Amino acid sequence: RKGQQQVLDILNNQEHDCYKTRELKVELPTGYGKTFVICAAYATLKQLGHVDRALIIVPSDEQFKSYLNDIEEDMRKMGAKITGAVPAQSDFGLKYHLKNEAEIFVTTIQSLSVRENNQRIAHDYIPKGKWLLALDEFHRLKKESKWGEAIEAITPVNFTLAVSATPNRTDRADKVIDGDIDVQISLKEAIEEGAI
For the chain, is the Cβ count within 10 Å smaller at the N or the C terminus? Predict the structure, then answer.
């Protein structure tokens, strides 16, 4: 898909501005393959030596379960070897991280907003590794909110990938990740491409 390829082309160009800002913002319509983009971005950044861990933050329990059920298989399908994907907020998630038995960790923004979970990730996870922070539906992360504060508490990381189908907030409030979108595919473009 065109938008997915654009993300990979940018990440494979180490002279791109995203390596100066250490973030990439992507708008893809629902059903276009944001999960694939996150997986492919992690695999690319890992291969280039920029990251060796991923923390994926999603807005719902449904997405949380979907990522955990699908991500290892998705990575295998694209030929990317990973040690495992586990919930970030669990005791065994931390154990797997410390023993290098998992490298992709998934949590919801609601769970990350719980003080104990946030402190665990900020103090026990992030200092040990080179992290990709992947924010699914990043437009929901209002800067001046509990969710925004939770994200800011775990940064800086090595690289941030922010993806959303609708990156603009209706209330026009500042987001934790703001600025111009680097890759943008409209619903019309996706339909014309036959992607959805």
Answer: C
How far apart are alpha carbons 78 and 97 in whole angstroms? 23
Alpha helices, DSSP H, located in the chain: 2-12, 18-21, 34-47, 61-77, 91-98, 109-112, 115-120, 146-153, 187-193
Tokens representing 45? 């950044």
Q: What is the pLDDT of residues 157-180, one digit of tens each?
A: 999 999 988 766 566 655 567 778
Calpha distance 80→131 (Å, rounded)? 17
For 169, the token pair is: 């907030």
User: Roughly what angle, to the nearest 10 degrees, separates helices 34-47 and 2-12?
Assistant: 20
User: pLDDT (tens digit, 9 = 90+) per residue, 139-150?
Assistant: 666 666 778 888
